[in-house]
Write a structure and sequence with these properties.
Blueprint: E1 3-16, E2 19-32, E3 36-40, H1 47-54, E4 63-72, E5 75-76, H2 82-88, E6 93-96, H3 100-103, H4 110-119, H5 126-139, H6 145-149, H7 158-170, E7 176-180, H8 188-205, E8 208-213, H9 216-222, E9 225-230, E10 233-239, H10 240-245, H11 250-257, H12 297-301, E11 307-310, E12 313-315, H13 322-333
Parallel strand pairs: 3-8, 3-9, 6-7, 7-8
Antiparallel strand pairs: 1-2, 1-4, 4-5, 9-10, 10-12, 11-12
Helix pairs in contact: 4-5, 4-7, 5-7, 7-8
């Protein structure tokens, strides 16, 4: 599959009162044309910073993309000027943000905000722009679009506001949609409706989706490929079925073990011991080793590289490598 988006060794930092911290440390991933890739991990692992870095929306100061390349259709977005990026945002790459209530301006009607989004990239008359907006509201399943056009965000439910945000993101038929926790704070019924809507719109428009989430149930329903992040690094990548069938990284296993299952009776859900490390005080070696049940001396000494293991899979872990076997023998001899 031809890559639409390629991120290579991306490094994003933030200046803080305690010094410079690295939020993304050598992140690499790709999204193919028409593909849905899920980016998963605990809160604070760097998922949203990755999406903001792609669109060059990291607030500066204090944030800065220090190194790496972000290739979209073969062109490096980091080399683009700000006017060029404004042309790309919304037209070629669109984003659904986490909180629809805070993403929509409360003092403007939903219709006027959609017209503004369309006007950034398409030259239409006022009548044509309104008809385009009404068409998008119908497309995302909003009833009575003529009435909703003149309503303010506070007059709509959370699910309706999220549909407006999806309509705003899709109004210029982007090639890539970044969906950052698109079902956060919505009830289960509305979540299912939003996910079903995204699946239908993806097929209808032929776009690719980078889905950012920590919900593995959403991943199973939506994604074709999964990229797992931990503490600013990519630690595993695999086709979705393979990841659920046989996760290679202990952290991924911990995430999957924490999901309730209907076919297994359990008194307690699985947990991952310990806490996510602070960006200002990362452990040496593998960043997961203080919480890993399989860690040995090598894990604390050396950072594992993201290596290919076959079948479209990659993992950054010493588990099962010759180096870990030698380290284990040394530990046993002591």
């Amino acid at each position: 599959m031809k890559p639409l988006l390629e991120i290579e060794n991306l490094v994003t930092t933030f200046d803080t009162e305690d010094g410079c911290v690295t939020a993304l440390d050598g992140v690499s991933l790709s999204v193919g044309q028409g593909e849905t890739v899920a980016l998963v991990g605990e809160s604070g692992c760097g998922k949203s910073v990755t999406s903001l870095s792609i669109l060059r929306l990291v607030p500066s100061p204090p944030g800065k993309v220090e190194a790496g390349r972000i290739l979209f259709e073969g062109e490096d977005l980091l080399a683009k000027s700000e006017p060029q990026m404004r042309e790309i945002r919304g037209r070629d790459i669109a984003m659904i943000f986490q909180e629809p209530m805070t993403s929509l301006n409360p003092v403007f009607t939903c219709g006027s905000q959609l017209i503004e989004a369309i006007g950034q990239h398409q030259r239409l008359t006022a009548a044509q722009a309104k008809e385009k907006v009404l068409e998008m509201l119908r497309l995302v399943g909003i009833p009575l679009p003529d009435q909703r056009f003149d309503e303010y965000p506070h007059q709509m439910s959370g699910g309706m506001r999220q549909r407006v945000m999806i309509g705003m993101a899709l109004c210029c038929a982007p090639k890539l949609l970044i969906a950052d926790e698109p079902t956060t704070a919505l009830d289960v019924t509305i979540q299912a409706q939003i996910l079903d809507l995204l699946i239908k719109l993806k097929k209808k428009m032929g776009m690719a989706i980078l889905l950012i989430t920590h919900d593995m149930g959403v991943v199973a329903e939506m994604a074709e490929r999964v990229v797992v992040m931990y503490a600013g690094k990519v630690i595993e990548e695999a086709p979705v079925r393979e990841l659920f069938r046989a996760p290679a990284h202990p952290y991924t296993r911990g995430l999957l073990d924490s999901i309730p299952r209907l076919d297994v009776r359990e008194d307690q859900l699985g947990t991952i011991p310990g806490n996510v490390p602070s960006l200002g005080s990362m452990p040496s070696g593998c960043r997961f080793h203080p919480r890993c049940p399989h860690a040995c001396g090598l894990c604390a000494e050396r950072v594992p590289e993201l290596r290919e293991t076959g079948g479209g899979r990659k993992v950054a872990c010493w588990l099962g490598t010759p180096g870990m076997a030698v380290a284990g023998e040394r530990s046993a001899s002591r």
